[in-house]
Amino acid sequence: MAVGRRYSRRFGIELALALFVFGGLAVLISGVHVSRAGVKGGHDDDRARQVTVFGVLATPGGKTLDPRLSNIHKQLDKLLPKNGFRLLDARSERIVDGEDVTCNLGNGYTLTTSLVKTLDENGKVELRCELFHEKTSEFSTLVKTPPTQPFFCQRALDDGSQLLISVGAR
Fold first, then answer.
1. What percent of the chain has pLDDT over 90?
2. What is d(CA 160, CA 74) in angstroms, rounded to the nearest whole number?
3. Residues 6+ apart with CB under 8 A from 94
4. H/E/C letters for each residue in the chain?
5. How far is the first Cα of the chain from the last one, in angstroms, to the nearest whole number?
6. What is the pLDDT at residue 44?
């Protein structure tokens, strides 16, 4: 019986994460500045990808909700109940291999996502996601995800809050 509950809870968490990510993309599409700096005209899909990155701060016991997150509040609340949520930064840029997108998360934190490969042998986009504090790497991971399917991770911070990070490419 306990095993069934564990899998049921795991499925619920995975569903909440998926809903959060897709809801987050809706937020990004509705209000993120899209830069095309450094990209030549035309649509060279073999070398370039539209990379989207955003960070959300979840504060335990907080009651505030960033208005830019209102359309995904239910998903956020299911993922991390009884938290306040604030969108720290969101960026979406068309980049080529070796270029990156950087979000300024505040308090000396930055989130940099680099395009490693536009498409690997398994049909996945490879991205390197790095969290820095005052130019010191705090977290780094290589993400391999199908195009248009964002990757989501959660990072506990020293003050008990959670940093929710979403990266994806199309």
1. 51
2. 21
3. 34, 35, 36, 39, 48, 49, 50, 51
4. CHHHHHHHHHHHHHHHHHHHHHHHHHHHHHHCCEECCCCCCCCCCCCEEEEEEEEEEEEECCCCECHHHHHHHHHHHHHCCCEEEEEEEEEEEEEECCCEEEEEEECCEEEEEEEEECCCCCCCEEEEEEEEECCEEEEEEEEEECCCCCEEEEEECCCCCEEEEEEEEC
5. 41
6. 52
Mean per-residue pLDDT, 81-102: 95
Q: Diameter of the chain by CA atoms? A: 59
- Name the band, by pLDDT with cuts 50, 70 and 90, for residue 45: low
- Angle ∠(146,109,28) on CA atoms, nearest 5: 45
pTM for this entry: 0.69
Closest CA to 86 of 63, 52, 112, 107: 63
Type of residue at 157: L
Rg (CA), the chain: 16
Contact assessment for residue 111 and residue 105, using Cβ atoms and an 8 Å cutoff: yes
- Residue 100 vs residues 78, 83, 112: alpha-carbon distances, Å: 31, 31, 6
89 in Cβ contact with 39 (< 8 Å): no
